[in-house]
Every structure is written in structure tokens, then in C-alpha cells.
Amino acid sequence: MTVETLQVPVYRPFTVQVSQVERLSPSFVRVTFTGPDLDECAPNGWDQRIKVLLPIPGRGLADCPSGADWYGEWRALPEERRNPIRTYTVRDWRADLREMDVGFVLHGATGPASAWAEQVEVGDEIAIIAPNARFPGPTGGFVWHPPADASPLLVAGDETAVPAICAIVESLPAGRRARVLMEVPTAGDVLPLDAPDVVEVTWLPRWPADAAVPAPRGELLAAAVVAAVQDLTVAAAPGTPLDDVDVDAGILWEVPEEDAVPTRSSGPYAWLAGEAGVVKGLRRHLVQEAGLDRTSVAFMGYWRQGKISD
Ligand SMILES: Cc1cc2nc3c(=O)[nH]c(=O)nc-3n(C[C@H](O)[C@H](O)[C@H](O)COP(=O)(O)OP(=O)(O)OC[C@H]3O[C@@H](n4cnc5c(N)ncnc54)[C@H](O)[C@@H]3O)c2cc1C
Q: DSSP H helical segments within 44-128, as ranges?
């Protein structure tokens, strides 16, 4: 690698403007971003993650880092001048139009990202940290990479994973079978999804139209994942004992290495993301009880109830 190559950051900040806002449902808003240099951004598709840096009331993006060492710049600032950083998924990407769609879950004004998304208007400005097209190597930032012969596929998550799951489903090669489970807040949050016939999609609204009260968070998803795993009849090996993960002290992020070879030949592959406590419970079930191969399952705590994601 040359010195020039090493100086090109893998990810870099882009200042973007909101060009469209579409309220998709009670809990989802789709925000389209555009920017003069957004064609220099190179998302990889699937569940590609990015960072968003949100404006500070009264200061906007005045202190927002802009250089290759954006994180160092950000950390060097006094805390009150650091723009809040949160992680989101590229839902859709149109390079020719320099447009990127991001799906925000609206969970009230309890966090800067949700509060921003509740009030977003065309013309608003934020910064994103996204893969740099000028970087000569792989830019990563996505987890979905099942082995070509992995089967069946299980993709499951809560509302925060819906943008990633929808992007994954829409990009599956023709004929690739998958079981998809998405828990969402209400019946009105079931979104249109262009899924191939061989992909079985189940939406799990916590608050269906005919219910007096909502189901507890994660309950429907956990039950559906457990049932789906039974259907997959994959418990061919005894379960593996697991180390405990403290989801309040750290991040639950246990994903197969990109080039990891599953320890069993062509078996199932599962991708699970959502509230960390719920994902932790599923991790225990899938690995310890159902005996899924850990090299074939991605477990991702996308957020933690009662904890800010900074
Ligand atoms: C790889 C990755 C990809 C992600 N992609 C998306 C995405 O595409 N769309 C999306 O909406 N989210 C996504 N998330 C989740 C998002 O980053 C978190 O929900 C984040 O906490 C939102 O920030 P905030 O400023 O709104 O709330 P925070 O300031 O982080 O939290 C404030 C409070 O709100 C609670 N909270 C956070 N999120 C929710 C929620 N969804 N429902 C109820 N309470 C909540 C927290 O527990 C806390 O009590 C992703 C996370 C990861 C790690």
C-alpha cells in the first residue's frame, strides 16, 4: 500500500441536505439525503451502516468534524460541542442522483436522532459518516454475508432493523429462500416490501388493530424466531455453552468473520438485530439450546432499552 492510499480514509464525513421526507407509517419516516459530493460515497448495500451526526440546538453543525480523522476531531471537542452521533442503515442508494434514503424509527423526543426525525423538514442539514468511494480496498460496514450454499436463511429483527432487513430482502439473488420476521410497534407499521416469492415474510405488530393493549417488546419476535428455528430442524449438534454478555455495560455484537468458514457444511445462516436484551435472549436460545453454529449466526444489539447509544 502506498502512502497516498494510507491517507485515504475508509469512511469520511459528508455534509448532506434533506431533499425529501416521507412519513411511511406511525413509527417510520423515510428521509432522503442529497449532497454535492455524495457520489463519492460508496455504500455496499445489504445492511450497510453509517453514522449520522445531528445538529446541536443553537450551534447546528458548526463544530462538526470534516477531516479524515473525524473521530479524533470530534473527541477533541468539549462535550457540549460534540454533535450527537448515532448509527443508522442505508435503506436505499441512488448514486446517479446522489441520493441516499435512511429509515428512522420515531420513538418520541427521548433521543436526539428520534427527536430530529420527528421534526425533519426538506432543506435541513446533517452530516453522515459513510464509506469513501476513493478508498481502494473493501470498505465493509455491513454484516450480511452468508456462505453461498447456506440454507435456510433466517433474517429477524425489531423496527430498528426493518430498514436493513428490507434492503437485504430486496437484494437477495433470485431463488434464494429465506424466512423473514419483523416485529414492529403497530399494525400500521407493516410496510410494502418487494420480496421474491420464495421469501416468506412475517410482520409481527406488537399492537394489532384488534388488541386492547400491546404485547411486551420482543415477545412476538422471540416466539416467532424460536418456532422458525424448530422448523429449520437444525439442532443436529448439542448446544454450545455461552459466555454471558452484559448488554448494559457493552454492546452485543457477535457476528461471523467475513471469511469465516462455518464449522459445519452448508447449514442455516441467521441474522438477528434489535433491542439488545431481546437479541441476547435469542442468542442463548439459538446457540445454547437449538445448537446453531456460532460461525453462522450474527447477533446484533442495535439499541438498548433505557440506555443512550452514544
Ligand atoms: C448497525 C445499526 C444500524 C441501525 N439502523 C437503524 C435504522 O436504520 N433505523 C433506526 O431507526 N434505528 C437504527 N438503529 C438503531 C438506532 O441507532 C438506535 O435506536 C438509537 O438509539 C437511536 O438514537 P436516539 O438518539 O433516537 O436515541 P438515544 O439517545 O440513543 O436513546 C434515548 C432513549 O431512547 C431509547 N430508544 C432508542 N431507540 C429506541 C427505539 N427504536 N424505540 C424505543 N426506544 C428507543 C433508548 O433506550 C434511550 O432510553 C441502528 C443501530 C445499529 C447499531
A: 70-76, 112-119
